[in-house]
UniProtKB/TrEMBL annotation:
Residues in Solcar repeats: 28-164, 172-256, 266-360
Alphabetical list of PROSITE patterns matching this protein: SOLCAR
One example of a Gene Ontology biological process annotation: mitochondrial transmembrane transport
Organism: Oryzias latipes (Japanese rice fish)
Gene Ontology CC: mitochondrial inner membrane
Assigned keywords, A-Z: 2Fe-2S, Heme biosynthesis, Iron, Iron-sulfur, Membrane, Metal-binding, Mitochondrion, Mitochondrion inner membrane, Repeat, Transmembrane, Transmembrane helix, Transport
Main location: mitochondrion
Full protein name: Mitochondrial glutathione transporter SLC25A39
GO molecular function: 2 iron, 2 sulfur cluster binding; metal ion binding
Record's bilayer topology term: Multi-pass membrane protein
Amino acid sequence: MWLTEKQAAKVKVGRMGERTVGGPVAAISPVQQMLASGTGALLTSLFVTPLDVVKIRLQAQQTPFHQALTCEPAPWGGASRLHKRKCFLYCNGLMDHIYVCQNGTSCSTWYKKPTHFSGTLDAFVKITRHEGLRTLWSGLPPTLVMAVPATIIYFTCYDQLRDFLRFGVGLQGSFVPLLAGALARLGAVTVISPLELIRTKMQSRKLSYSELRVCIRSAVARGGPLSLWRGWGPTVLRDVPFSGLYWFNYELVKAQLCEQCGTTQANFSISFTAGAVSGAAAAVLTLPFDVVKTRRQIQLGEMDSLGVSVRKTSSTLNILKEIWTELGYKGLFAGFMPRVIKVAPACAVMISSYEFGKAFFQKA
């Protein structure tokens, strides 16, 4: 849904992507938006992945792999307990990915290192000194195959939808970013969900491409085409509200910071701050959905590794009831600090890099 030349002529783009009605055409093309978002996605992954690798290593030393026999979903968002299990969530700052450990071979990076860490800083130092700097980015390349395209689709669609709603449809008001963000995320999740399911199958069962094709056909024959979107519901339940709230708050916070700084256009620091604040707020408000999505994703990973029928998985409503029964309402809101620590810097780096990339193309 690209803007026509007539619609684009109504948009005047400022130094950091601000748009106002009137003025000469300065809008960047969708391809340039894709390049800017792709670059931002790579930078975000490089920045956030070491934090998650250290977190996993600290958890892994508490429970060696030979004790990790079954998968137990955690009652908090962002990670699962490393207790008698063989799957966990890995986050590269853009998406959560399921990793399934079988016989220790697919998780050697996290489970076979004997080094003992006394804390986060100690882990960073010892991993870098004894295992090399590259170890901090363990597991990153395979996840980028899904995360970068998803981010490109998401950010490009958001900009295009926002401008279309404002200048194509004529909608005005602060709800436009909320609507555009929610729709953009819905589209990105729908496109990427089957690909992430395929990646999980390949990683958990060590399938060749020919075997994977047979596996997918068998799954479709048993459960229909919609079986390729297993886990789509809980993911949408978390990501769509998060995205709507994030963009709604981002545009508001950015406008307020610009007003306080006496500028009409956001600079890098303003975008960074607005991204961090908006990401933290959205993360807290959508925390119950993240808890459900995490438990569901871990559950599906275990199903793949054990070959259990998809019909035996719990529904989103049942998962909510289980969490409420086990931990009460606190279970749905527990773990907000780890989620905020992970989400806020990732959002800040991503949006400021994206806006900087757009500004670069506008000046070119």
